[in-house]
Amino acid sequence: MTGALLTREEIRRRVHALGPWFHNLDLNGVPTAPTHFLGDYPNVKWRRFSGIIPDRLEGKTVLDIGCNAGFYAMEMKRRGAERVLGLDTDEEYLAQARFAAEVNGLRIEFRRMSAYDVGQLREKFDLVIFMGVLYHLRHPLLALDLIHEHVAKDLLLFQSMQRGASHVDAVEKNYDFWTTDQFDSAGYPRLHFIEHKYADDPTNWWVPNRACVEAMLRSAGFAIAAHPEEEVYLCRRTERPQVDGPVYPSRSTS
Questions:
Q1: What domain of life does the native source organism fall in (predicted)?
Q2: Is the pLDDT of residue 254 over 60?
Q3: Which of 173, 203, 205 minimizes the C-alpha distance to 191?
């Protein structure tokens, strides 16, 4: 039975069976996470920056890395994107996303794939969405490098949880060995490492401050075009400032 033919009670049963949900979606009047600790999330956040994405995306391709239940992928399809591909490593999230897209009558492709494996797509996208993923990765800068190298054609919509100072120090391009005061400043780029858990989540590995987020984006070859919301950036792909790009650790075949 297609999503359009499901009754509200049938949708409610499927939502319950596929839970718990992190994205609170409205599926024909059925909310998927009505008691979310962040409120009507991610819609409450989306409303604060949705205006930086073109209203019409006809002819454009979109890649949503870490798509979860597909909120942003579906918003891009609603704006007319020709092709939308959502990636996640969690099969439960992908099952939620496929069901939500079906109920909403939106043709979106979803695949199980890590941010580290985007080179396998052999395709570049007009818009890459990388929302709420960076701090869940043990190798965050590698992921940005791989996105720049393999899948970003033009725009990157980026978001990361941030902690620490919100102001950004003016940083010199070089300091001599004996100059160390900058490391004690709260506005110097800092990436805080979490050895065990944060917010009961063992996949929260790193938490940057604002200066660090912006420096990492620039270092990976993304020029910040807009900063409409505290944690959200719209970037354009540019040339990397350093010659070094992504590394490719060998995988064991045993």
A1: Bacteria
A2: no
A3: 205
Order of strands, sheet of 232-237, starting from the edge strand that comes earlier in the sequence: 109-112, 83-88, 61-65, 125-131, 152-159, 232-237, 222-229
148-185 pLDDT, tens per residue?
Answer: 999 999 999 999 999 999 999 999 999 999 999 999 99
* Contact by Cβ (8 Å): 162, 209: yes
What does the pLDDT look like over 69-124, one tens digit per residue?
999 999 999 999 999 999 999 999 999 999 999 999 999 999 999 999 999 999 99
d(CA 14, CA 2): 13
Chain position carrying tokens 């409303």: 47
Question: What token pair was written down for 106?
Answer: 């939106």
Residue 37 is classified by DSSP as T
Q: At 163, list the tokens.
A: 């902690």
pLDDT at 4 over 70: no
CB 208, CB 216: distance < 8 Å: yes
Q: What is the pLDDT of residue 220?
A: 96
State residue 251's pLDDT score. Answer: 66
3-state SS, residue 181: helix
User: How far is Cα 202 from Cα 2, in angstroms, rounded to an integer?
Assistant: 37
Question: What radius of gyration, in Å, describes the C-alpha atoms of the chain?
Answer: 19
Q: What angle do CA 40, 133, 119 make, to 5 degrees?
A: 135
Would you call 228 helix, strand, or coil by DSSP? strand
Among 241, 194, 193, smallest CA distance to 217 is for 241
With beta carbons less than 8 A apart as the criterion, state whether 101 and 122 touch: no
